[in-house]
Amino acid sequence: ISSHATAVGLYPNLPYDPLKDFAPITEITAIPNLIVTSPNNAKLGKLANLKELVETAKRAPGALTYASSGSGSSNHLGTESLKAVTGTFITHIPYKGSGPALTDVSAGHVDLMLDVVLTSLPHIKSGRLKALGITSLQRSPLLPDVPTVAEQGYPGFEVLGWFGVLAPAETPPAIVDRLNKEFVAVIRSDKMRATLESQGGPAIGNTPREFEAVIRSEIARWKEVVRKSGAKLD
Known about the structure:
The chain is of the alpha/beta class. The protein is 41% helix and 18% strand. The chain has eight helices and six strands; from the N terminus they run αβαβαβαβαββααα. Strands 1, 2, 3, 4, 5 and 6 form a six-stranded mixed sheet that branches. Helix 1 packs parallel to helix 8 and helix 3 crosses helix 8. The protein is globular. The two termini are 21 Å apart.
């Protein structure tokens, strides 16, 4: 999962090498986050888009708060990445899990949160939350009216929570290739494709080399986000 990449920056003394000690098999899916807030939030209830959120945040640096499922979590670092590109300072409120974090955002106790499509979607449909943007480069078929962050003035911005299959580094190449073919066949099957798309992500099923490139890129990216933001574990 994507924490495989973020761990490098967060744990300087990892007892393993996330590249050398594993043989990538294939990436399963990559799920975007939604920037969500409560329509009843006293400070943000009338905001319609990311531009207005950024303007509000810049008027009072540090006054707005964002929730995460915990320090070092993907939505913590994802929000730090968003803050960096928008030039805003929003105060981090870490929770022990995304459930209580999302509950407090929907109640207006915390101003906003980056949360995966799957868990936010029911709250958006019920009117308890509203989405100001999505962190994929394309809009989600599940929420076609929600614009991407990239569309709203930040080209190329993307934060995805990815899932994949890894094997031990010593796995013979022939076995890696066989596992890749078997997993890709399942991932790209009609049933699995429909399941993944219902959860907000595409069915990927790439090659071991392509998946390795994703991991390398993600490690470099999140290591830099951790360094620049000063993010750390509590």
